[in-house]
Specification:
about 90 residues, 4 strands, elongated
């Protein structure tokens, strides 16, 4: 593979688009891209090597929360860590 230069088009995960999109290299550190600009939404961000950022849900926090709840109310069920599916809105007939 040839060396990356400023302005080259590469694929990377866009934080705004939340997809792997075409990006232009904005800055280089050593021989690797450091910053890239999405060619769809024009947002600048660090080069992510085509990997999505980790999810914001921290399972450690949920486990600690459930542990504290178990100490306060030992007979209660642990809280669900997964979000419930969204309910669809139905229109009422007149």
């Amino acid at each position: 593979m040839r060396e990356v230069r400023l302005g080259d088009t590469i694929d990377d995960f866009c934080v705004k688009c939340k997809r792997i999109m075409n990006h232009s290299v904005v800055s280089i550190l050593g021989s690797d891209p450091a910053k890239v600009r999405c060619r769809t939404c024009y947002s600048d961000h660090d080069y992510r090597h085509e990997q999505a950022p980790p999810p914001k849900v921290d399972t450690r926090k949920a486990a600690l929360f459930n542990e504290v709840l178990a100490k306060v109310q030992p007979d209660a069920e642990p809280a669900a860590t997964e979000p419930e599916p969204a309910k669809s809105k139905s229109k009422k007939k007149k």
